[in-house]
Amino acid sequence: MQAPKPQVLQHATPHLLADIGGTYARFALEVSKGDFQQVRSLLCADYPDFYSAVKAYLESLSGVQIEHAAVAIANPVDGDLVSMTNYHWQFSIEDMRQKLGFDTLLIVNDFTALAMALPRLGAQDVQQIGQGEARKHSVIGLLGPGSGLGTSGLIPSGDGWISLGSEGGHTSFAPRDEREIVILRYVWKHFEHVSFERLVSGPGLELIYRALAEHANQTPRELSAPEITQHALECNDQQCIDALDVFCALLGTAAANLAVTLGAMGGIYIGGGIVPRLGDYFARSSFRTRFEQKGRFSRYVSAIPTFVITAEHATFIGAAAILDAQLKTLSAEPGSAILGQIRRIRADLSPAELRVADHVLAHARAVVNDPIADIARAADVSQPTVIRFCRSLGCEGLSDFKLRLASGLTGTVPVTHIQVTDDDSALELGAKVLGNTASSILQVRSQLNRDMIERAIELIGRANKLEFYAIGHYGVVAQDAQFKFLRLGIPSIAHTDSRLQLLSASVLSEKDVVVISSSSGRLPELLEVAEKVRERGAKIIAIAASHSPLIRKADVALIVDHVEDVTTHLPMVSRILHLLVIDMLAVGVAMGRNPGAASLMQGEADERLDEARPVEKKASAKNQAPGVSLASPFAKLTSHSR
Fold first, then answer.
1. What are the tens digits of pLDDT across the range 462-498?
2. Does 380 appear as a known binding residue?
3. Is 612 annotated as a binding residue?
4. What kind of architecture, by CATH, is found in domain 332-414?
């Protein structure tokens, strides 16, 4: 009698999985563990943003309800904002979760997801290249060329694994022979830094091909990476054959570097979109020979096996594993620490506190962002009851409770904006104001545009005269900037009166630069003076909110998306953000002139931020109206796993 097959439980609702690269967005539904259906690939170029691509896939399904989703993306994931390196899509994780109506949306690096799939792959899912035998419960390395060169690794931890978030593809390329020196010299003509990703990738294969053609005094054809590969496999173009051979050798070097860096005795796995398509050619290529050429460590790497991942849905497998682990953390057994604590003490709560507990258990994610009035109303209790409930769990108050709750939901302790209320103690007020400031600084840091900052520093460094315009509460930003740049020897002046700004703007020259600081970027007085500056041919650097009229008038836009309502309280966090942008510009200019001056100015910036914090604390307690949130429009609690 045949033994019964183990039962595979279906998910209550299908899990949406996605693998987003720079060219294609692949989607699938996991209806039960390892059962992937409705697999489709969409061309990223056909959709203006990430949301449109997801929506298009969901609309192609007939009445499928999605509650939980995991997305593997070819990009580092650090914080709520995701800005793709190899494509223009950008989005907030929490905003996207709410817009799509999901309970859970995990965004992870694609190679982190692929790494988590490795322990779940069988012998039929990989092809071993060369000799070597993997040691059990040892570190595993992973890399793979596609639109870039992804790297990751797995470290054994108890019964599970810890995946490494890595950008090892950007390590500096080092040639091993004369041919590779020729390639390096060619690439140096176009790029200051040559990383392994620059060559061991789809665009890299095209670079190698052009470099070899130039060295052979031949005019290279306009061939894409797939076309170069096809000509090489068909053996009908010698330059393509040589290019693919170099590509495989360089991948061998990169793989050996990763192996010795990680001590990857569990093996090195090759994924990505290129190598699995090479088939038997890759096994015959110079990859393994180069991998074992490690000088004194040749014997060491020769014992390490190398594998090509051939499983069709390997990234989906890893993303599904990460999503399953997250959902187990959120489930009742054992649940997040704070939710488990609430379940344990339910029997000891008063009827009113029990209603708060049940509301939190049913709407944990909403409670993290809801003000106390909404929580009390939803639970049909008074606001003091909510506070007593929080303190019954050992929390200092509602803000402390929310931090612990958010930590349990996301697996990290978030830095997020939290509302100041009349019930807060002096300690809670201070903690909230400092936390809100830290959160905003991190958010602005994640949105920094390197090109814009460098352009602003360049303009300031070449300016004959530098003028700073701001109005009202932001006048301190202009005055601080004047002081800083005068110390750097740049003729500078600050104007905080709109009439003086117009008069001064009317005598500017084309070699002058004006820095305008405005939280909203919509004040009519500043927009008028910006027009006058443009008429005179001077350059404008604007520090303001994105998509504002002032930003559209600027030559250089430095985005600070934290707009505060000055009708209800004085600007606090946003003013500090504008001051820090000035610090970035000042330090950048100083670095170009005198590194010692840059260090001095950075120290002053740190001192001012320390001094500003108690001021902000007092301003918050004095000016914050009851029930008014400090949260910026974009500040959301992230719901992702790294």
1. 999 999 999 988 999 999 999 999 999 999 999 999 9
2. no
3. no
4. Orthogonal Bundle (1.10)
